[in-house]
Structures are given as C-alpha cells and as structure tokens.
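Technical annex B. To support the medicinal chemistry partners, we prepared a structural model of the target in complex with MRU, based solely on the information shown next.
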Amino acid sequence: MSVKTIEWRDGELLLIDQRRLPRKEVYRVCRNHRQVAQAIRNMVVRGAPAIGVTAAMGVALGARHIRERKNVGAAMERVFKTLADTRPTAVNLHWALARMRSVYEANKDGELTVLRRRLEEAALEMYDADVAANRRLGGLGAALLKDSRRILTHCNAGALATAGYGTALGVLRAMKESGMSIDEVFVDETRPFLQGARLTAWELRKEDIPVTLITDSMMGYVMQRNRVDAVVVGADRVAANGDVANKIGTYTVAVMAQRHGIPFYVACPTSTVDLSCPSGAEIPIEQRAEDEVTHIAGRRIAPDGVNTLNPAFDVTDHSLVSAIITEKAVVTAPYDKNLRDTCAP
Ligand code: MRU
C-alpha cells in the first residue's frame, strides 16, 4: 500500500492518524516515548503488530532523550513501563518490549551513543521483520484459500494494523498478486470503533479488491445465503491452546461460520502467539470508554445515564478455528502441540 502506517524519519516517528481515516490522511509526529504511548492509547495507531513495532520505536525515542549516563537505568524503566501500560490485550506490544529490553540489557553498561544506536537498529529490524513475516504468511494463506473467491473479514488486519502488507488482508493481497481472482470481500463495519468500515474498506478500495461493506448484524444473513466461502481475521493474542483473542465480534463470526460449515482462518505472525498463556481465559481483555458505545462519529445516539459495556476484544475458542496461518506454517489442530512445534523459539 502506498500509504505508510509507521515511519521512522531522522529520529522522529511518523504515524498516520487512523482516527481520521478514511476522510483525512494526516500524520502525527512523535518525538518522545510519552507521545508514542499516547498515540497507542488513543488509537492513532492500532492493530497488534503495528502497536508492537510502534512501541519498539518508542523505546528507541526514549533512549534518545537520556542525557546522562548515570540516569540510564531509572529512565529506561520509566520508558518501558509507560509503553507497556498502554493497551493490555495485543501480546505483540509486550513481545516487542521484551525484545527491546534484551537489547537494552546487552548494551546498558556501554556508551550511551551505542545503546541508542542499537535500540534504533533493533526497532528498525523489527519493522522489516514484520513486513517480511506478513508477506510470507500471506503467501501461505493464499495457497490455503485457493478455492475461495468470496471472503469475509472482521476489523482491520491490514497494512494499517502492521508495519505493512497486513495479516488477514495480507492473505488477500497475496491472492491478488498471484493472479487469483477474488469475487467479493465482505467487510464487517466493526462497531464501535468502525475499523472495518473506515480502515479495511479504505485499504481494499486502494488495492482494487472488490469490497462489500456490511453492518456486523448482517454477517449471518450473507452466510445463510451461501455468499461466503471462507472467513479470514487477524489476532491480538493466540494462547498456547489455540484460543484466539481478536476484535470484539470475532467470536460471533466464528460461531456463525461453524454453523454454516464455512472455514474460519486466523492469520497472524508468530509474534502474536503467546505460549506462556495457557488458554483464552487468561488473556486480559481491554475495556474501553463508554462514549465509544453511546456515540457514533462524535454524536450521541443513546439516552443519558444508560449503562454500557465496551470490551474491545473477545476470545474465540480453538474448536472454532480451522487453521492459524503464520509466517512459519499453517497450523491446525491439535493446537497445543502444533503451535508449540511451530512457534517455540
Ligand atoms: O483495537 P484494535 O483496532 O487495535 O484491534 C485490532 C484487531 O483486533 C485486529 O484484528 C488485530 O490486531 C490483528 S491486526 C493484524
């Protein structure tokens, strides 16, 4: 995609402001780790792999502002904590911070300039590795979906949600690149934040992939009328037993897919697989502000004083998942064994 989600430019981090899409393509500049944390929390940047890479760049920015050698330890702990406390569900954030921490540990006693350079290099490597992983998993996914021409997706698991190319949308990109024809992609609007309507529809239009936008409640209708060959979604965290946390509403899609005999695929890099988390029950689910539910595009739609619930993610039981497409392999059941075999370091 021509639009860049994340860009490191001369020690500054540029993020396309995803809250303004599709109407405006504006970039936010982050010059320190606090601005990066704010951008993650406020959804300027969102999507599990994108959050991870952004946080890594936040660590590199944090190190640039340390002036004195003797302050390094305390200052870097503040940087790591500020970034870790932004969003709880996507494990890529914590995976990326753990990687940056190991680079920090290996270089903390040396020259400050060397530490800064190593952290910056590590963040840029992570960026490149994410794009490469998405391209590989896209290719594996395209081969898996060779007989599927009508696909449904939920939320945005595209270039905007990653360093580039995308996971679920990476599969669609790879299908297109390899000359496979895609007749129709149903995009759930994905209330309340509307990642499907605003971001996925925008990305697919840019790629000239045929998109049909539906509200979340229309998904059963299109499945019942035999208009969907396969579902492909991304993930925020895959537990060791194959349970998948993804955008709220994903579980409903998976149940409906099973009801209609439609394969339900999850596309994610191995950085999204958390082997230390035994099952979906242990995945922390982010609860977001009530105004995302009571308002649409800044306008109140609900009466004052109404109670709300706003979990940002749900968990899909592994029994509903047909396969998990990673950059290393397409993983099928039994997930506990096969995820370990594929993803263990
Ligand atoms: O709240 P968001 O927009 O960060 O949630 C994003 C999702 O749920 C995506 O489906 C997931 O991160 C996969 S992105 C490749």
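Notes passed to the chemistry partners:
Residues 112-144 form the longest helix (33 residues).
The CA atoms of residues 74 and 80 lie 10 Å apart.
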